Amino acid sequence: MKAAVLREFKSPLQIVEFPQPDLGDGEVLVRITAAGVCGSDVHMWLGEDPRTPLPMILGHEGVGVIEEIGGKGPRFDLYGRELKPGDPVIWDRAVVCGMCYFCAVKRLPNLCRSRWVYGIHRSCSDPPHLNGCYADHILLVSNTKIISIVDWPDLDPAALVSAGCSGATAANAIELSGIEIGDSVLIQGAGPLGLYLVGYARTRGAEHVIVIEGVQSRMELARRLGADLVLDFTSTTPEERKEAVMSLTHGRGADVGFEAVGRPEPVVEGIDLLRRGGTYVIVGTAVPMGTIPIDFYYQIVLKQLRLQGAWTNDTRHIVQALSIVRRNAKVFSDMVTHRFGLDQANEALRSMAEREAIKAAIVSSTHA
Amino acid sequence: MKAAVLREFKSPLQIVEFPQPDLGDGEVLVRITAAGVCGSDVHMWLGEDPRTPLPMILGHEGVGVIEEIGGKGPRFDLYGRELKPGDPVIWDRAVVCGMCYFCAVKRLPNLCRSRWVYGIHRSCSDPPHLNGCYADHILLVSNTKIISIVDWPDLDPAALVSAGCSGATAANAIELSGIEIGDSVLIQGAGPLGLYLVGYARTRGAEHVIVIEGVQSRMELARRLGADLVLDFTSTTPEERKEAVMSLTHGRGADVGFEAVGRPEPVVEGIDLLRRGGTYVIVGTAVPMGTIPIDFYYQIVLKQLRLQGAWTNDTRHIVQALSIVRRNAKVFSDMVTHRFGLDQANEALRSMAEREAIKAAIVSSTHA
Amino acid sequence: MKAAVLREFKSPLQIVEFPQPDLGDGEVLVRITAAGVCGSDVHMWLGEDPRTPLPMILGHEGVGVIEEIGGKGPRFDLYGRELKPGDPVIWDRAVVCGMCYFCAVKRLPNLCRSRWVYGIHRSCSDPPHLNGCYADHILLVSNTKIISIVDWPDLDPAALVSAGCSGATAANAIELSGIEIGDSVLIQGAGPLGLYLVGYARTRGAEHVIVIEGVQSRMELARRLGADLVLDFTSTTPEERKEAVMSLTHGRGADVGFEAVGRPEPVVEGIDLLRRGGTYVIVGTAVPMGTIPIDFYYQIVLKQLRLQGAWTNDTRHIVQALSIVRRNAKVFSDMVTHRFGLDQANEALRSMAEREAIKAAIVSSTHA
Amino acid sequence: MKAAVLREFKSPLQIVEFPQPDLGDGEVLVRITAAGVCGSDVHMWLGEDPRTPLPMILGHEGVGVIEEIGGKGPRFDLYGRELKPGDPVIWDRAVVCGMCYFCAVKRLPNLCRSRWVYGIHRSCSDPPHLNGCYADHILLVSNTKIISIVDWPDLDPAALVSAGCSGATAANAIELSGIEIGDSVLIQGAGPLGLYLVGYARTRGAEHVIVIEGVQSRMELARRLGADLVLDFTSTTPEERKEAVMSLTHGRGADVGFEAVGRPEPVVEGIDLLRRGGTYVIVGTAVPMGTIPIDFYYQIVLKQLRLQGAWTNDTRHIVQALSIVRRNAKVFSDMVTHRFGLDQANEALRSMAEREAIKAAIVSSTHA
User: Fold this and answer.
1) Has residue A367 got a pLDDT over 70?
2) D323 and B182: CB-CB below 8 Å?
3) Which single residue of A167, A294, B28, B47 could bond A321 by disulfide (Cβ 3.0 to 4.6 Å)?
């Protein structure tokens, strides 16, 4: 069993062989068909993410086919279907305790103190080693939530991988935003996160979906997912953008907005483009980025603004992301602009680091 | 009919005589029994509030007795009771259009663009003049929402006045906070707004109500309303307060917090004392106060914090405020530490400006 | 000014001439371009609806063009746009007080005790007479909420009329249902109400939309709006339908269901097809229909079912209905299978009474 | 280790000795200090509950002290506190999978298909035998959610046991009801479930709490918990009760109602006493009781009623129940009118079967 291992920050990943693991009760060995390359992987590779436990196998987004199931008892998927070898599956990248205040009382398992994520929190130095998706196999522990995708045989696995991470995170942001039918929705940034937000905004009945972005290929995907006002920040002034948004919303501003850029600077413009009583969700800023001055009277209180942070997601959001990918299969497949084999993992990381790809994936030869 | 008129900023109010008005259909003439002196009145008197249209009658908080009802048709209160002269009443200080996007679609009449408030937005230079509560009479226009308080003959009118302003604003903040039974709630500041928040937090089932305040008499009222951890910021360090809050909440922080100080500086401490996934409502900052730097990654996103502004209130919140005053009548009566006659209006303002009073009221001789 | 007047139950409507009214402040005279013929109109014509105040002008669904605006002041639409003669408009068929417990506290203006509806509650015997849509003109009173549709010049007025009644009622039902992204949704009946529900279910992110209906043309429209499982109750058994639903939902049943048939009998099947913890909204049963036995243990408690009645709608739901019509303009235009001139009003009623039309409309010659 | 075992329906329980179990990783052996005798236990004893797997140890409500913890790793409580022998604890009587559609997507673990409850679903014939609370010890499996009550040393264990069952079920019903501050709340029945509902209604800010009951001692407890209108159905007519409720609510009816009687017959009166747009929660009917005819037009649609079933509860509701017991410790202690030793288990059952006790508990000699 092979995996691309990160041994040293900023150095190339190396292909390492691991022994076939013995499976405990409820454990599932999956052959990976597609692994997503996330922007966070780049941060980890660069050593910018303090969680990174070297040596490790990167990759928290994966889709695969079950090879073996441990134990005698049946192993079920989220819908109660008995899993068996050969089933194509996706899974919740996060494992949570289910028994703490966050899991059991506040129903926020994304904030569970024991939460750990494949490809992020655990080193591969200890058995069973195979805990990341930049690999040909991964071992899913017994309390991993698995979803069979056997109903959707034609779906491109590479289009699905992002459902487990940016798609699910976007779904959490959407749920926290409380979008209503007829709302005007502003989305700043049209990377994978922003594109999912466009799709969800339409899916929840937005009247207008306004996107601010600077890269043509991303703008084009946003339009295909239903954005009806796409503002190019490289060729418009803030004043022009404000006029465009106010004109579309009869002078009141957008009802709901999302920061999906990855930096907090757009927050000031985002708040300015929202109506009083609106909700602004900050979901793109996934690493420390310093402070932004906020005028609490004018920007928050007088405006009765809701400023909401969104951190990762719950299992429910993965289900929602799968639904939206299925309904927009071609667009999400086209979003994966770069595909590589496992032995090209370094090249895959580079394509994301240099923002050459909108989304890159490592695919097994069968699906390359 | 007499009123205390503000003609010039920072100069004494002057008692002016106005003619008895002719009442149009649905208009109601009320003899005022108690008028609240709000912190905003001080800002208006000082000329710090840009809305102030001189000359004007201050006073947006009032309770009174109906003297006359205009028109032939019946005039009903909020509960469908026919009003008649002699009925003691309170009313919604705000008049809204009921027909705009904010009123009719988003159900946020507090953000109605046509909203105006007795004692704040209108000058007394035009008929019918009597549009503020620092007066012996007020004329309520036909679309003013009136609530009869005939069921509660023993309630101190001075205890009730704040229900129409700070009590209702606090109710809006509480609704926006989404408090659940068993939550730990942090309240910064125990002026009228903060004291109402203490009462509501208990009323919504808070397990712990934590108050940070520096004035002993306010702390005492907070305790009487149900605060079980009162931290004196004049004698504790931020570290000591954090330790106290974390100890009470098993190390996770408060579930919900409120800024009720009137300045945004406490926001940083407030956020720090909240748990991940918590909600922090900013409700006290009612005038411009400059900016505060916010670290969006650590304070908002990673924490999945909801930072919510609350601006004034809706009619529903007045009903809720009346309910809480009724159940805590003695405490809210004691909160009105200073009472004056109409001819002492300047002294009343001074008692609030110098923070001598927790709450001051102008009461008619009958109730003084 | 002409209108088709109902003088006697079950007798033909008669065209009557009325004088041009003098407009009071804020009143608006509208030339009607399209009036919807609702199933309720048939009930009123038959004398089955106790509200019917003879003589009267039927028609509570209308779209038109402003001819005149009363008073000197500006008259605004819901979005704050100043209205002027020549503007195409739609309006909230219901007039409410905005000041009672239901309007101002519980935010349920659809339950306002003073609520009255054009074409339903008022006789045409008193001035200004013109209070129904089966007419060439209607007079909108000053507190009627008006929405300009000037942005959508190409929309078929006949497609829009239902947005103000069945479309808005369906939006209320959808809001009460709490549909989430990924839900499986059951809709019983594909008349105008059911077709709107199909559209909304898709608009709110339903994974599966299941329709039970017996008329081919209605089934076809349901499919065009996004239904992915359409069950013909004339050619399937309840057992077959249950198997189909359970198969699609991995054995658990639909998450949300709607009775849009107009009779309560389907309730039993509907509940049976829902999962535990589901929500079932009864929205089609608009006239008394007798009782249905309910087993509270098995159907409600053990199932933790939410059984929700939905009665008419609020202004917000009209906005939502307009949004969905605009996005599905051709389908909703095709839903209006029968169109008539004002002098054919009796024929229009007949086409609905005999269920020959899915939806009939009375259109002015310009748009016929 | 001793337990009272049900071997044959309607026959006396017998005290049986079981071997001390070996504890697996995360398993906890608890010495029971108090076990609640629930109405469901009587149904099981009579053979009326189809779930009952003979032979079995009854008792799903318990409080105790940890004697031993299995495995080497630390075992935490819900709040992340490390548990140790000697800690007084309560626990979630239900064990759920945490990984299915109901647990992980819809956040309704009370509807988890794998859910099982101590003292209800499992026979005691297989090891580790000790799975019910009518015993001196119980073995809690590793995924049982445990809550330390070490902070509340003075709380009567017998007062706490019902928090884990009827108190938590009532909390679920309250959450599903959406009570708002100022609401008028109707509660039919003042057994343990109804009494908790009274407490919660007050805790959530009800303006009026109306109770219908026939037993004086229960009425008295309802009053002590805050009911302000208690109607004795043995001495009032339905008309008198309706007049009383309408008078209190200005003619509109209660905002929220609860069936906590255990039979569906009161549903008809309950619905009649609610206002339009109200919510009626059926929570008391815990065993099959036949059907009740419902008029969907008048009782559900025209009224826009929400009729909501409530089935058992989630962990969050136990936390809420503990909070309310703590704040009303004396009343909930007095609610336990009958206390017995383990060898008097049959007498305890009888006291409940004959409705002699409001609530009975089996207490260890230390606490008897």
Assistant:
1) no
2) yes
3) A167
Burial of residue B17 (CB within 10 Å: 0-12, 13-18, 19+) is exposed
Q: How far is CA A224 from the centre of its chain?
A: 19
Give the tokens for residue C270: 């509907």
Q: Does B72 touch chain A (CB under 8 A)?
A: no
| Whole-structure pTM value | 0.96
Sheet with B56-57: strands ordered across: B14-17, B2-6, B56-57
How does pLDDT run across B29-45, given as a tens digit for each residue? Answer: 999 999 999 999 999 99
Centre a 10 Å sphere on the Cβ of residue A119 and count the other Cβ atoms it contains.
Answer: 27
Chains that touch B (3 or more CB pairs under 8 A): A, C, D
Residue B368 has pLDDT above 50, yes or no: no
Residues in CB range of B220: below 8 A, 6 or more apart: none
The tokens for B368 are 């003084």
Please give the Cα distance from D213 to D189 (Å, whole number).
Answer: 5
Q: What is the pLDDT of residues D127-158, one digit of tens each?
A: 999 999 999 999 999 999 999 999 998 999 99
Question: Rounded to an integer, what distance in angstroms lies between the CA atom of residue C297 and that of residue C302?
Answer: 6
The residues with which C338 forms a beta bridge, in sequence order, are C360
Contact check, Cβ <8 Å, A296/B308: no
Closest CA to B208 of B171, B246, B237: B246
The predicted pLDDT at position A289 comes to 86
Calculate Rg over the CA atoms of chain A: 21
Altogether, the residues listed in chain D come to a count of 368
The DSSP 8-state label assigned to residue C99 in this structure reads S
DSSP state of C111: G
CA angle B20, B24, B25 (to 5 degrees): 140
Sequence-ordered list of residues with C-beta below 8 angstroms from that of A243, at least 6 positions apart, any chain: none
Residues in C closer than 8 angstroms to D104, CB to CB, are: none
User: What domains can you pick out in chain D, each with its CATH number?
Assistant: 2-151+328-367 (3.90.180.10), 170-309 (3.40.50.720)
User: Would you call C216 helix, strand, or coil by DSSP?
Assistant: helix
| Per-residue pLDDT band at C366 (split at 50, 70, 90) | low
Size of interface A-C (CB pairs under 8 A): 58
**ipTM score:** 0.95
Q: How far apart are CA C121 and CA C100, in angstroms?
A: 19
Asked whether the beta carbons of residue B301 and residue A285 sit closer than 8 angstroms, the reply is yes
Length of chain C: 368
Q: What is the DSSP letter of C300?
A: I
Q: State the pLDDT at residue D205.
A: 95
- From C54, C35, C279, C285, select the one nearest C165 (Cα to Cα): C35
Chains sharing 3 or more CB pairs under 8 A with chain D:
A, B, C
Rounded mean pLDDT, A123-144: 96
pLDDT digits (tens, 9 = 90+) for A215-271: 999 999 999 999 999 999 999 999 999 999 999 999 999 999 999 999 888 999 999
Which residue of A258, A263, A297, A312 is the best one to mutate when testing the B interface, meaning the one whose CB has the most B CBs within 10 A? A297
Which chain D residues are closer than 8 Å to B277 by Cβ? none
Contacting residues of A for C319, CB less than 8 Å apart: 182
Q: Tell me how far CA of residue A161 lies from CA of A60, B174, B333, D113, in angstroms.
A: 9, 40, 62, 29
Name the pairing type of β-strands C116-117 and C137-140: unpaired
> Contact, C301 vs D309, CB < 8 A?
yes
For residue A368, what pLDDT band results from cuts at 50, 70 and 90? very low
**3-state DSSP call for residue C358?**
coil
C264 and D297 within 8 Å at the Cβ level: the answer is: yes
Residue C171: its H or E element: helix C166-177
Task: Tell me whether residues C80 and B100 touch, CB distance under 8 A.
Answer: yes
Q: Flag whether residue C100 sits within 8 Å of chain B, measured between CB atoms.
A: yes
Extended beta strands in C242-348, E state: 254-259, 274-282, 291-295, 306-309, 336-340
Query: For residue D366, what pLDDT is reported?
Result: 54
